[in-house]
């Protein structure tokens, strides 16, 4: 399912890069431009799927695994719940991961207000008017 789809898009992006390089060598300007735009669309789509889909899902599963002892559960219980309703289990873990990511981002914003400027220099400021994540995805390499 999901892994196969992501791998397919990664292969598609790789093929577009190879075709783009070939079009550059042969001097096909229109083909080169079209392949470049297609590559950018696939790259941004992959990064968005990773950031909004896969990362929260992994966070949700990790929180579940780390809190097993707190709820007196075992991995076998989680495996049984996944076997009985895989879509519901994946959605709930994704939802827990999204809530975690949201609260973590809110915590960082709160820390920026409380701490002196420059302490969190290594984290991007989401309130910065020059912050444009889509533009960064387009220009920065993967």
From TrEMBL:
Annotated localization: Membrane
Q: What is this protein called?
A: RING-type E3 ubiquitin transferase
Organism of this sequence: Nothobranchius kuhntae (Beira killifish)
| Spans through the membrane | 6-26, 38-63, 91-111
**UniProt topology in membrane:** Multi-pass membrane protein
Which UniProt keywords are listed?
Membrane, Transferase, Transmembrane, Transmembrane helix, Ubl conjugation pathway
Catalytic reactions on record: S-ubiquitinyl-[E2 ubiquitin-conjugating enzyme]-L-cysteine + [acceptor protein]-L-lysine = [E2 ubiquitin-conjugating enzyme]-L-cysteine + N(6)-ubiquitinyl-[acceptor protein]-L-lysine
Which top-level group of life is the source organism from? Eukaryota
Which pathway does it serve? Protein modification; protein ubiquitination
Q: Please list the GO biological process terms of this entry.
A: ERAD pathway
> Does the keyword Transmembrane belong to this entry?
yes
Top EC class, one word? transferase
Please provide, in alphabetical order, the Gene Ontology terms of the cellular component aspect for this entry. Answer: endoplasmic reticulum membrane
The record's GO molecular-function terms, alphabetically, read: ubiquitin protein ligase activity
- The gene behind this protein is Nfu_g_1_020383
| The UniProt record lists the keyword Transmembrane helix | yes
EC annotation from Swiss-Prot or TrEMBL? 2.3.2.27
Which positions carry the signal peptide feature in this UniProt record? none
Q: Where is it mainly found?
A: membrane
Q: Which PANTHER family match?
A: E3 UBIQUITIN-PROTEIN LIGASE MARCHF6, SSM4 PROTEIN
């Amino acid at each position: 399912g999901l892994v196969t789809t992501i791998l397919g898009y990664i292969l598609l992006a790789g093929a577009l890069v190879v075709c783009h390089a070939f079009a550059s060598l042969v001097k096909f300007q229109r083909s080169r431009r079209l392949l470049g735009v297609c590559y950018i669309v696939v790259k941004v789509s992959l990064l968005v799927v990773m950031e909004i889909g896969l990362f929260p899902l992994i966070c949700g599963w990790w929180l579940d695994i780390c809190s097993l002892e707190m709820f007196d559960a075992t991995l076998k219980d989680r495996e049984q719940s996944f076997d009985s309703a895989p879509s519901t289990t994946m959605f709930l873990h994704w939802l827990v991961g999204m809530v975690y990511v949201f609260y973590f981002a809110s915590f960082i914003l709160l820390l920026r207000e409380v701490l002196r400027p420059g302490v969190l220099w290594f984290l991007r400021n989401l309130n910065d008017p020059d912050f444009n994540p889509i533009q960064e995805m387009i220009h920065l390499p993967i």
